[in-house]
Write a structure and sequence with these properties.
It comes from Glycomyces luteolus. The structure is a single chain. By secondary structure, the chain is an alpha/beta fold. It contains 30 helices and 16 strands. The strands form 4 sheets. It has a 6-stranded parallel beta sheet with strand order 3-2-6-7-1-8. Strands 11-16-15-12-14-13 form a 6-stranded parallel beta sheet. The longest helix has 26 residues.
Length: 715
């Protein structure tokens, strides 16, 4: 067996039969129908590597298109791990913009239009020129509608007839929208700018209209892979067709049951019609779910099993591959405030029991639901990460941290080992590994900088694991270069914190524990979903949310929006299932029962003045902030020193061992037994078993080094 044959055999080992079939399908059109958690990224990266190792082409001849910069970065990292470099793994817009900047002077006479991130002001200008009275909210809706039309290859002249044929609601009178749309195009032309839809359209035009450009691009890129193919818009498909020309060496991967972006112009039609369009296409179905427990998989299959419409004809029934896990739980709360408080309390308990905050997510239908959970989690000192907020590298604290690192690289800090240089440099922005704030916006900012510090450790570990490839340990300059690469690709590191995300933003992500909240009819499905097509997309959205969970899944809703408000019904997709904790109406007109009485929280009095404690932090410590503390300062410092070392051993942030508030409580109470230690906030059974002996050793005057050794190998 040749070295190449051995490499190929090693590449294919570990794949399941369906994945292997997808990877080794002959060159030409291939359609991979991949259910949630079935290893689609593994399949497509191995297919690219298989084609390269066989000698079909070099990595530089491959274009892999994803829908997020994060997914593109992950794909590049996985391909590097398989020994394949040079693959052009990008989003549609990134790949098109790169080509447009290189070849675009031929179309624009030497000067490309400026790309604008936000086109809202051009919509406002266009609305004024069209004589339409608008507001900021109205302009936002008009912008969204224009983006949909452009992505759907619908121009201003065809807009009115097109939406009439589709039965689509317009944000204003259709004739007025068409006028604004035409004026918007003119406003961009006058200002010499282009939007993201223009980038795709101009690149497709460039390839179609200029044979020399087409020949050069097609000779460079010979094999195409398209991820999330069910979300491709007509405009993106037009660009893809231009890239391909008369060739058909393309692999697409998608899942019709995860079609949730029709509001952007995305259509599963291209996925559904792929084998009809390419008669010689190979079709492979991936159904083995390696992500979720059978309990989660079973519920997902129940939800999508009732789907209707064309997408339902290509639905996949997932087969769970993991051992049994906890049952899916369902609960009705009195109102949304109680729901947010109880979910925050359970997140806090999970963290106390040893679950990393980054492995917990709270998912909701609309971004407007986020604030209640941000506030509730902050009150329990739980860090959060809001997906869909500012991009990681655009955050002020991240920009400041990167500047501090670059500046430090030019000082004596730059000569220090990377593991010491990064923390030293970040002290300039007030960041220390053992000084996390208790919660809220400050905690979120702290964790963003902590993610950079953690990334430096991963960067160092990667180099040490690949000494022949990467040479000696990297320095601070090399790490700054890695940050620049990631920033240009928007390949953000993971941030420690409970994720708050809309169901749309959660697509492509996964967590150990997921709380699906606000599952009341009218919220999910939204009241705007009036047609069967729209309702089916809402069903698929719920399916996507369910399949984000690996082990724990809790479903919930508030019976009323506000205390004493009108009662609401359970989400219609869940009502017939009879999940324990949820009502199951016997007929469509049945009343929803009231939720069970909830135990009132125990009233805690201050150990100093005796007044009832209401603030979350005060309750955790057992006394008011103004009352004198009895903390053993020496014990507190030794606990902090121990925590930093143990966290480093475990490879996770220090606060996930114990928060500062918990350390203060230990240093004040000086517990003498497991039961006394367990009575403190933030110490669940898992942490008691793991860290209890070491903590009691420190309380009894033991050495920090001995306490650290007691936790060695326990992670």
């Amino acid at each position: 067996m040749t070295a190449r044959d051995q490499a190929i055999e090693q590449l294919l080992s570990g794949l399941d039969p369906e994945q292997r079939e997808a990877v080794t399908a002959p060159p030409g059109p291939v359609c991979i129908l991949a259910g949630a958690g079935t290893g689609k990224t593994r399949a497509v990266t191995h297919r690219i590597a298989w084609r390269v190792l066989r000698g079909d082409m070099r990595g530089q001849h491959v274009t892999a298109v994803t829908f997020t910069a994060r997914a593109a970065g992950e794909m590049r990292d996985r391909l590097r791990g398989l020994g394949v470099s040079g693959v052009n793994a990008r989003t549609f817009h990134s790949a098109a913009l790169r080509q447009l900047r290189y070849f675009g002077t031929r179309r624009f006479g030497g000067q490309l239009p400026e790309l604008v991130d936000s086109t809202l002001k051009f919509t406002a200008i266009a609305a004024a020129r069209a004589g339409l009275q608008t507001s900021r909210a109205k302009n936002f809706d008009l912008t969204t509608e224009i983006e949909w039309a452009a992505s759907s290859l619908i121009g201003p002249d065809d807009y009115v007839s097109a939406i009439a044929a589709l039965g689509r609601d317009a944000p204003a009178a259709p004739e007025d929208v068409a006028k604004v749309y035409a004026a918007y195009i003119e406003a961009k032309r006058r200002a010499g700018v282009m939007d993201f839809a223009d980038v795709l359209a101009y690149t497709a035009d460039l390839i179609t209209d200029h044979a020399a450009t087409a020949d050069q691009i097609r000779s460079q890129y010979r094999f195409f892979v398209v991820d999330e193919y069910q979300d491709v818009t007509p405009l993106q498909q037009r660009l893809l067709d231009a890239w391909l020309g008369d060739r058909d060496d393309i692999t697409v991967v998608g899942d019709a049951s995860q079609t949730i972006y029709s509001f952007t112009g995305a259509s599963s039609r291209n996925l559904l019609d792929f084998t009809r369009r390419h008669r010689n296409a190979s079709l492979v179905r991936l159904v083995r779910d390696y992500r979720s427990t059978p309990q989660v998989v079973g519920l997902a299959n129940q939800i999508i099993g009732e789907s209707k419409g064309r997408e339902a004809k290509m639905r996949l029934e997932l087969v769970g591959q993991r051992p049994d896990g906890p049952a899916v739980t369902a609960e009705v709360f009195a109102d949304e405030a109680e729901e947010a408080d109880m979910i925050a309390r359970r997140c806090s308990k999970l963290i106390a029991d040893g679950v990393s905050p980054s492995e917990i997510a709270v998912l909701y239908r609309t971004n407007a639901q986020s604030q209640a959970y941000e506030e509730a989690l902050a009150s329990y000192g739980v860090p959060t990460v809001v997906t869909g907020a500012a991009r990681f590298f655009d955050r002020p604290e991240v920009r400041q941290a990167v500047v501090a690192l670059r500046s430090a690289a030019k000082t004596e800090i730059g000569a220090m080992p990377l593991s010491e240089a990064v923390p030293a440099a970040l002290e300039a922005v007030g960041w220390r590994p053992d000084a996390a704030p208790s919660g809220g916006a400050q905690r979120e900012a702290y964790e963003a900088v902590a993610a950079i510090a953690a990334l430096s450790e991963q960067f160092l570990e990667h180099h040490r694991a690949n000494p022949d490839e990467d040479g000696p340990d990297p320095d601070l300059d090399a790490f700054c270069a890695e940050l620049s690469r990631r920033a240009s690709e928007q390949h953000a590191p993971a941030v420690a914190g409970v994720t708050l995300a809309s169901l749309h933003a959660a697509k492509g992500l996964e967590w150990d524990a997921v709380f699906l909240v606000g599952l009341a009819d009218g919220t999910l499905p939204t009241t705007f979903a009036r047609t069967e097509t729209a309702l089916e997309e809402e069903r698929r959205l719920l399916y996507v949310g369910i399949t984000r969970a690996r082990e724990r899944l809790q479903l919930s809703y508030g019976l009323a929006r506000n205390a004493g408000g009108r009662e609401r019904r359970l989400c219609r997709f869940l009502a017939p299932l009879g999940l324990g904790g949820f009502p199951r109406p016997s007929d469509p007109g049945a009343a929803t029962p009231k939720p069970r009485e909830r135990k009132k929280a125990k009233v805690l009095d201050c150990s100093g003045c005796g007044k009832p404690l209401t603030d979350a932090r005060d309750r955790k410590l057992g006394h008011c902030e103004d009352c004198p503390a009895t903390m053993d300062e020496g014990l507190f410092e030794r606990l902090r020193e121990w925590r930093v070392s143990v966290a480093k051993q475990d490879g996770k942030p220090a606060f996930t061992v114990f928060t500062d508030v918990t350390l203060i409580a230990i240093a004040e109470r000086c517990p003498g037994s497991d039961s006394e230690l367990a009575s403190l906030h933030g110490i669940g059974k898992s942490k008691l078993d793991k860290y209890g002996p070491a903590v009691l050793h420190l309380v009894n005057g033991g050495e920090v080094t001995e306490a650290i050794a007691m936790c060695d190998g326990e992670s």
